[in-house]
Design goal:
This protein is an alpha+beta fold and about 90 residues long. Helices cover about 25% and strands about 20% of the residues.
């Protein structure tokens, strides 16, 4: 899988959401990079969440499904620090 990370900040309590005792700091995504028409909206959403401080870190589980997916990862790498995690214990 690939992981896109933005700014890092401390997390909230066990609850999630800006009104649950603090801002959420983690966005989890799985199998979201498969439709080229969705690459731009996905990237814009991740950028907006990071800019608002709602999600300072994003973890994306990914399985290659489309030959053009490199377009998403290239665009994401221009805006975020990406780190590829391979297998348990998911270290770079």
């Amino acid at each position: 899988g690939k992981a896109a990370a933005g700014r890092e900040q401390s997390g909230a309590s066990g609850e999630v959401g800006p009104t649950a005792g603090g801002a959420a700091w983690l966005t989890l995504c799985s199998d979201v990079v498969y439709e080229p028409a969705a690459y731009r909206p996905l990237l814009l959403t991740l950028m907006r969440l990071a800019a608002l401080g709602v999600a300072s870190r994003t973890v994306m589980a990914h399985r290659s499904r489309h030959p053009d997916e490199h377009l998403f990862w290239t665009a994401a790498a221009r805006r975020f620090r990406l780190r590829l995690l391979r297998g348990a214990p998911f270290v770079p």
